[in-house]
């Protein structure tokens, strides 16, 4: 809104698209239930984006300016959309290659049902801490752990919550993570000061999460799990060549991720390598999957791996749970998730280009008088940004820029702001169905965001820990030395 001829939006105008979105999403969930994310929510987001753009036109902005803002906003998500396509291909080829079945097979025998949820959270935390990516963690070991939970007769929803809790702890605390580097860069503090300061809020939240997952695990029904376990092991053995060699594609992905090879390239290599391993180790599986006896052997292998990459793998054994477990993947499985992300980013971009987002944030800053209220407003703003803009990076950068001067004016060290950004923007992003992170986790793990979010204990607890610290002024560091006198 650089043109002086345009009018600044009012608070009522800023709230109009938000209020309408809340109403439409409520009706969407009421009418369509868990299927609301398969089109109804997208329509709601598009309608509200249109309302925001109409406000911009009313205030004197040109259509060209508004259109460019929306297109630029959507372009931010292009990388995430490509990653989603690659992950879809990876899931399909990993199942066909026996990578996922082998992970499930050995996981079923190693992981005890009583400790499964705690172990899942811990495993994902360690992997994400090592490679710095919650997305890669969920798309690799997360897929296997979801399968193990079904094999043990445990809740997929709770398992997804444990995976996401662990993955986001590791992502948040890893110096290799993009968000962990972004938050201190935006606020003007250094990386390792930022990480050390985050430990005060992050560690208690993780410990509490472990305790909750342990309590849930100890109350599981062990007798039913033993029967499900035996059936699943037999089915896996009957339908796949279970071999440790099939885990090589997963190890290659971990190595590439650790070496900070770009995510799209890393996942694509993992998918294509699995396609090769499928031909080597699962030739009989491919023949059954393609089910075209008239084709030459080489063409059967080609069609099998090709199909797994674009439309996923499917199997029919008569066991509904088993079939659902391994009939997944393919690029096409991610198209609805991409649809959701594009419409959500359109709404967020419309709110930003019209100045409505800026108006909301400025109003929130103005009412925060105490330190506790200021940090609480950052938490609320970042969570709101995740809802409105559907992107965790925007939810870090925009509030970070807008609150930076206010923190300095009040004599608060920049590391307080960077920690608060991560305690809210990074952590809550997978809890919103249309956020890029929430949509990715739902698409990858095969569990709806609305079903798993209540079990993401780490993600839910961390903002509360951060707010409690702020209320009692605990570990809220003032500016020291020369910077305080500037």
From TrEMBL:
<feature type="transmembrane region" description="Helical">
    <location>
        <begin position="115"/>
        <end position="148"/>
    </location>
</feature>
<keyword id="KW-1003">Cell membrane</keyword>
<feature type="transmembrane region" description="Helical">
    <location>
        <begin position="338"/>
        <end position="361"/>
    </location>
</feature>
<dbReference type="InterPro" id="IPR018461">
    <property type="entry name" value="Na/H_Antiport_NhaC-like_C"/>
</dbReference>
<dbReference type="GO" id="GO:0015297">
    <property type="term" value="F:antiporter activity"/>
</dbReference>
<keyword id="KW-0472">Membrane</keyword>
<keyword id="KW-1133">Transmembrane helix</keyword>
<dbReference type="GO" id="GO:0005886">
    <property type="term" value="C:plasma membrane"/>
</dbReference>
<feature type="transmembrane region" description="Helical">
    <location>
        <begin position="373"/>
        <end position="394"/>
    </location>
</feature>
<feature type="transmembrane region" description="Helical">
    <location>
        <begin position="199"/>
        <end position="220"/>
    </location>
</feature>
<feature type="transmembrane region" description="Helical">
    <location>
        <begin position="265"/>
        <end position="290"/>
    </location>
</feature>
<dbReference type="InterPro" id="IPR004770">
    <property type="entry name" value="Na/H_antiport_NhaC"/>
</dbReference>
<feature type="transmembrane region" description="Helical">
    <location>
        <begin position="240"/>
        <end position="258"/>
    </location>
</feature>
<keyword id="KW-0050">Antiport</keyword>
<feature type="transmembrane region" description="Helical">
    <location>
        <begin position="38"/>
        <end position="57"/>
    </location>
</feature>
<feature type="transmembrane region" description="Helical">
    <location>
        <begin position="69"/>
        <end position="95"/>
    </location>
</feature>
<dbReference type="InterPro" id="IPR052180">
    <property type="entry name" value="NhaC_Na-H+_Antiporter"/>
</dbReference>
<keyword id="KW-0813">Transport</keyword>
<feature type="domain" description="Na+/H+ antiporter NhaC-like C-terminal">
    <location>
        <begin position="166"/>
        <end position="473"/>
    </location>
</feature>
<protein>
    <submittedName>
        <fullName>Na+/H+ antiporter NhaC</fullName>
    </submittedName>
</protein>
<dbReference type="Pfam" id="PF03553">
    <property type="entry name" value="Na_H_antiporter"/>
</dbReference>
<feature type="transmembrane region" description="Helical">
    <location>
        <begin position="12"/>
        <end position="32"/>
    </location>
</feature>
<comment type="similarity">
    <text>Belongs to the NhaC Na(+)/H(+) (TC 2.A.35) antiporter family.</text>
</comment>
<keyword id="KW-0812">Transmembrane</keyword>
<feature type="transmembrane region" description="Helical">
    <location>
        <begin position="452"/>
        <end position="472"/>
    </location>
</feature>
């Amino acid at each position: 809104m650089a043109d002086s001829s345009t009018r600044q939006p009012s608070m009522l105008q800023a709230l109009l698209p938000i209020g309408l979105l809340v109403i439409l999403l409520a009706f969407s969930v009421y009418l369509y239930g868990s299927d609301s994310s398969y089109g109804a929510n997208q329509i709601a987001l598009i309608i509200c984006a249109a309302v925001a753009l109409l406000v911009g036109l009313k205030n004197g902005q040109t259509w060209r300016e508004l259109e460019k803002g929306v297109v630029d906003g959507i372009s931010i998500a292009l990388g995430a959309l490509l990653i989603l396509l690659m992950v879809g291909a990876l899931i399909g080829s990993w199942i066909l290659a026996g990578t996922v079945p082998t992970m499930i097979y050995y996981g079923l025998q190693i992981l005890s049902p009583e400790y499964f949820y705690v172990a899942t959270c811990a495993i994902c935390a360690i992997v994400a801490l090592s490679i710095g990516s919650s997305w890669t963690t969920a798309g690799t070991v997360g897929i296997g752990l979801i399968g193990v939970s079904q094999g043990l007769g445990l809740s997929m929803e709770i398992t997804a919550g444990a995976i996401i809790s662990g993955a986001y702890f590791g992502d948040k605390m890893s110096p290799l993570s993009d968000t962990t580097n972004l938050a201190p860069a935006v606020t003007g503090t250094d990386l390792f000061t930022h990480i050390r300061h985050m430990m005060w809020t992050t560690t208690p939240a993780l410990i509490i999460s472990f305790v909750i997952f342990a309590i849930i695990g100890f109350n599981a029904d062990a007798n039913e799990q033993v029967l499900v376990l035996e059936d699943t092991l037999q089915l896996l053995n009957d339908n796949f060549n279970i071999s440790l060699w099939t885990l090589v594609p997963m190890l290659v992905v971990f190595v590439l991720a650790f070496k900070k090879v770009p995510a799209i390239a890393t996942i694509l290599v993992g998918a294509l390598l699995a396609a090769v391993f499928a031909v080597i180790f699962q030739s009989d599986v491919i023949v059954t999957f393609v089910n075209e006896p008239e084709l030459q052997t080489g063409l059967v292998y080609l069609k099998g791996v090709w199909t797994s990459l674009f439309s996923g793998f499917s199997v029919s054994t008569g066991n509904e749970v088993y079939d659902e477990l391994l009939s997944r993947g393919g690029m096409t499985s991610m198209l609805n998730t991409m649809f959701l992300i594009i419409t959500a980013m359109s709404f967020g971009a419309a709110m930003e280009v019209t100045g409505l987002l800026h108006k909301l944030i400025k109003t929130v800053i103005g009412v925060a008088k105490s330190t506790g209220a200021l940090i609480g407003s950052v938490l609320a703003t970042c969570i709101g940004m995740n809802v409105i803009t559907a992107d965790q990076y925007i939810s870090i950068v925009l509030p970070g820029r807008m609150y930076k001067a206010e923190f300095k004016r009040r004599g608060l060290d920049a590391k307080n702001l960077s920690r608060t950004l991560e305690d809210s923007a990074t952590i809550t992003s997978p809890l919103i169905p249309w956020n890029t992170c929430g949509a990715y986790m739902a698409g990858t793990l095969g569990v709806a965001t609305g079903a798993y979010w209540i079990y993401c204990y780490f993600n839910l607890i961390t903002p509360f820990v951060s707010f409690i610290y702020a209320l009692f002024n605990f570990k809220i560091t003032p500016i020291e030395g020369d910077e305080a006198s500037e």
